[in-house]
Amino acid sequence: MFRQSTPSPAVETPRDVEALERVIEVLDAGVVDERDAYRRTTETLVAELGLCYGAIWLPDGEHLVVAGQYGPLVPAMAQAPGSRGEQVARTVGFGGVAVRTGKPVVLDDSSDGDACLRWQAAVRGGATQGCVLPVVEGGAVVALLEYYSSTPLPFFGGRGTKWQALGRLIAHARRAALASAALQETVDDRSAVTTVVRSVGEATDARSALRAALESVRTAFGWAYGSYWALDPQTRTLRFDTESGSAGTEFREVTLAASFAEGVGLSGRAWRARDLVFVRDLAELTDCVRAPAAQRAGVRSGVCFPVVVGGEVIGTMDFFTTATIELSESRSSALRNVAQLVSQRLDGLHRAERDAANARALSETIGRLRQAADDAGRVADAAVAQARAMASEVDALDEASTSVGDVIRIISRIADQTNLLALNATIEAARAGELGRGFAVVANEVKELARETAGATQRVSEQITGMQETTRSVSAGILSTSDEIARLGDVQARMNDVLEEQARMAAAFDA
Hints:
Elements: H1 15-28, H2 34-49, E1 53-60, E2 63-70, E3 88-89, H3 93-101, E4 105-107, H4 117-124, E5 129-137, E6 140-149, H5 162-201, H6 206-221, E7 225-232, E8 237-245, H7 249-257, E9 259-260, H8 265-273, E10 277-279, H9 291-297, E11 302-309, E12 312-320, H10 329-432, H11 437-510
Antiparallel strand pairs: 1-2, 1-6, 2-3, 4-5, 5-6, 7-8, 7-12, 8-9, 10-11, 11-12
């Protein structure tokens, strides 16, 4: 696809060695991730070798995507394929040759411009030489580094094979730098997890724990913006609850108005998966209403994890950056640990709040029971007093009936005496003959009246006797009831003691 000729021998210069040393120094200083390693390598070579252009290409499925461009030739390359962020097939141009062979492709004025539109654009911009350098790991091309220069490049001619050595050196330095970065990230992740745990652990209620978790996760892991979405049990949708950080006014306004069903958007995906979900480019979420605003606000990558309490998802926490990042295994593991720890803490706080509410309800119930017991005690005391008063009145009635009985007996004796006198009068009237006949009639009537009086007094006496027996029975029953009520008061007192103990226990739970 291209022709390689032998250009004029390059002027020997130590710049190449110095450039390699500088690359190693920069990588040894530490990198954040793989992209950062490529960026530092490319920027350093462009600066140290005086190149006019350097670009980083990363695989994206069956395509390649530009991940960074540097140097004064960037404007001239703007219309070249891939420079605007669009995908380019892995088989196209000199980059395709480098991917297929796994070897550097060096370019000069003898290279076939028709084979590569990017080389054509570079030449029009003033480049005279170039190189497409594959970075190979495990037999696979993991990146392409594209360089153009308006002056002779090093490693041409007899030293051209050093471009391949440069590729191996960059790969080794990249591995070492990434290993160091991974180690540092692991340390940072552990520190971040510790910070989050400490912050959430200091919260005394679920609401403050959520806010502490959102803020501490965002700051500890270096996210630009974070938000918590609470599950609405009525509509079964996630609705905005609280936020931390800032990603622009428009993004915030869209966030405040948004809601997500299960499986929809970043939060909905985390809800459905019940696991951590990472999106390298938020624009990829076509069902996320925040994606367009995110692009305009410069929000790039996002991550979200569910908050699970009592085995159920109660909400999600999402976080965003203004730079496109990759989520390492270490960072993913750390965030999953954070999600689990936050969920556990909230679960415990929710249980504590439920227990406290139950304790308060128990305390209120005990208070009402105690009041009812006190009222019952007072009623019992009043009943005892009333029963005793009734017993006294019944006793007085019994005494009164006894007195009435005495009067009846007196009347009965008078009736008996009257009857006897009437009988004597009748006898005397009979002796008087005709003269005593009228007196005999009167005496007979008096006798009949005395007999009726005696009968009436007898009936009244019997009724009074029955009433006395009834009053004695009622009095005995009242006294027995009074004793039972008194014993009920003792039971009530013991109940009060038990309620007092329960009240103290409820107060201890509430505290």
